[in-house]
Amino acid sequence: xxxLRFAARRLAEMAATLLGASFVVFGAMYLAPGSPASFxxxxxxxxxxxxxxxxxxxxxxxxxxxxxxxxxGQVLHGDxxxxxxxxxxxxxxxxxxxxxxxxxxxxxLLVVVMIGLxxxxxxxxxxxxxxxxxxxxxxxxxxxxxxxxxxxxxGLFAVKLGWFPTSGTGDGFxxxxxxxxxxxxxxxxxxxxxxxxxxxxxxxxxxxxxxVAVARSRGVPEREVIRRHVFRxxxxxxxxxxxxxxSTLLVxxxxxxxxxxxxxxxxxxxxxxSTKDFPTVQAISLLIVALFMTxxxxxxxxxxxxxxxxxxxxxxxxA
Length: 319
Known about the structure:
mainly alpha, MetI-like fold, 2 domains
C-alpha cells in the first residue's frame, strides 16, 4: 500500500511538472525576437491580407492563454500541430524518427552498462596497477565530449578503415544496428568513464563496511563477498547514476545524430530550431521533458528494491 501511495504521489507530481513544462515550452517561442508570423513567412514580405490569413489560420490574434489552452488540449489528444518546414503532422514526424533515436540510446546504454560496470568492478577489486590504468582510461573518457568522439571515430573507423558506414540508418533492422554502432560508441564513451568511476567509488566504500569484514571472518568465499555484500550494496548509487546517464544520452544524441546524419529526433530538433519550426520544437522539447521525468520516476520506484536500506521517497529527500 505504501508503494502504491508513493507511486500515485510521484505520478501526480510528474503530471504537475509536465503541465508547468508545457506552459514554458509553449511560451518560449514568444520570447524569441520577431513574431510567430515572421517565422512562418521566413523573412518574406507579405500583403496585409496574407498576414491576416496567417494570423487566422494559427489563431495568432487570440490571447496567449487561449492559444496555450487550445494547444494543450490538442497535445492531450496526441495532436502536436503541423510542421511548418515539412508540411506534415508533427506526430507523423515523431513516429518516423523516434525509433532510430530510441535504438541509438538503447545501444549506447547497453555499451555503457556492460563496460562501465565491468571497469568499475575490476578497478575496485584488483587495485594496484590495474586500478591506476582504469582510472587513467576513464579520466580520458570523461574528458572527451560526445561530438569529439563522434568525429574521431568517424574519421578512423568509417573514413580511413572503412569498417563502418559514415552516415544514415541503412535498410532493415540489422542494417540499422550496423549503422548505429559507431554513433552508439561515440555517445557512450563519456558515460562509460562516469559509470566506471561511480561504480569503483561505491564498491570501495562498501569494501570498508563492517558487514564485509564479518562475511570474510565467517569464511564466505571472496567471490560471494564481492557479489552479495559489496556490489549489491553499491547498486543504489549505481542506479541513481543510471538515471542521470539515460537523461544525458537523450541530450547528447542531438550532437551525435547530426555528426552521423541519423534521421532521429535529435537531428530533427536541430533542423527545426534553425528553421524556426516551432510546432516541431515544442513537441520534441515536451517529449524530452516527459522522458526525463519517466526515467526519474522509474529510478525512484526501483531504488528501494535494489537497496532495501532505502525507504520510498528517501532518495529524493536526501538529495
